UniProtKB/TrEMBL annotation:
Annotated SUPFAM superfamilies: Metallo-dependent hydrolases
Catalytic activity: adenosine + H2O + H(+) = inosine + NH4(+); 2'-deoxyadenosine + H2O + H(+) = 2'-deoxyinosine + NH4(+)
Protein name: Adenosine deaminase
Record's signal peptide: none
Length: 371
């Protein structure tokens, strides 16, 4: 079941829609040409190719080392190249600026861009210098475009710097940073290892999201929600393991799924990426369809625009094609995302009432009729 309104949005119409992006990794979205130019400028010789098309194809293609391997671990291996060329303030600022430009061109009006400062210290930058470079780059790239770009600071879950990064996030609050995150391979690295960081953020009245339920199952989600009190769940795909669907299509929710839905915990879903990492077998079988029908607080995101060869427009267009969604569905996902953003309430409300709802109303009134 979907909530369509009799019109099928085209990709170009979706591009013009005022969209909201909550889960996008800075080091997962550089332009291939930029990666090559930065590698040349800073003497990095490890790229698989210095041809723009070939390098882009390597990141996006089904080769052994590429991102589309069906394995989260292999997917993450590709980041060694993008991170390697993002080790100076100029490089970080450039990638952030181009990120904002690309999102604005894709019709995104609000975005939370996440990255792990601890991965960018190889050339001697301090953590504060790293954050400053990214915040400045996003500000310049978003200037005059209508995009409101903010930053989430990520700690790597297999390392021991999460409290330090949490303190960094609070230090930069109100200067472009709106929250905290942990990321990396889930198996063997439960979120409870970083409980002190989450408690620090809570005591400082901050916000945080946790990568959980992507490559690991319900225990990861349960810990993130019940032990760590996550404001949002990064991916959360495996919540479907707590939902039973009978042959007649009736869904019965288990206690954790009920809790997540009842308390409106936002799910930052990234359909294409989830297929590429093996979290879902295909878009058609992705849990987003069921979770949308069951009215979970689902949002649609890109995760890594380079590695998964996506934009927010293409993600929505894929969902339209796969599930038959119309403007009502895309608007629902978008308002879910804006409600779940880490902006102050009045700013969220302004964007919903003054930008998102009027933008969707205008597009729905003039879109191509469904055939």
């Amino acid at each position: 079941m979907t909530t369509t309104d009799g019109r099928r949005p085209t990709a170009e119409e979706i591009r013009r829609a005022p969209k909201v992006l909550l889960h996008d990794h800075l080091d997962g979205g550089p332009r291939p040409a930029t990666v090559i130019e930065l590698a040349d400028a800073y003497g990095y010789t490890g790229l698989p190719s210095t041809d723009v098309d070939k390098l882009g194809g390597w990141f996006r293609g089904p080769s052994r080392a590429s991102s589309h391997s069906g394995s989260l671990e292999r997917y993450l291996e590709t980041f060694r190249h993008t991170v390697a060329v993002m080790q100076t303030a100029d490089a970080l600022s450039r990638v952030a600026r181009e990120c904002a430009e690309d999102l604005a061109a894709d019709g995104v009006v609000y975005a939370e861009i996440r990255f792990a400062p601890e991965l960018h210290i190889e050339r001697g930058l301090s953590l504060d210098e790293i954050v400053e470079a990214v915040v400045d780059g996003l500000r310049v790239g978003a200037g005059g475009t209508g995009l409101h770009a903010r930053v989430l600071l990520t700690a790597m879950r297999h390392q021991a710097r999460s409290l330090e990064i949490a303190e960094l996030a609070i230090r930069w609050r109100d200067r472009g940073v709106v929250g905290f995150d942990i990321a990396g391979a889930e198996a063997g690295n439960p979120p409870t290892r970083h409980l002190d960081a989450f408690q620090y953020i809570q005591r400082a009245n901050g916000h945080y999201t946790i990568h959980a339920g992507e490559a690991f199952g319900l225990p990861s989600i349960w810990e993130a929600v019940q032990w760590c009190n996550a404001d949002r769940l990064g991916h959360g795909v495996r919540i479907v393991d707590d939902i039973a669907v009978d042959p007649d299509g009736k869904a019965t929710l288990g206690p954790l799924a009920n809790y997540v839905r009842d308390t409106r915990v936002p799910l930052e879903m990234c359909p294409s990426s989830n297929v590429h990492t093996g979290a879902a077998a295909s878009i058609a079988t992705h849990p987003i369809g069921l979770l949308r029908d069951l009215s979970f607080r689902v949002t649609v995101n890109t995760d890594n625009r380079l590695m998964s060869d996506v934009s927010l427009t293409s993600e929505f267009a894929t969902l339209v094609e796969t599930f038959g969604y119309g403007w009502a569905d895309i608007r629902w996902f978008t308002i879910n995302a804006m409600k779940s953003a880490f902006l102050p309430f009045d700013q969220r409300l302004d964007l919903i009432n003054k930008v998102i709802k009027p933008g969707f109303d205008a597009l729905a009134a003039n879109s191509t009729p469904r055939t």
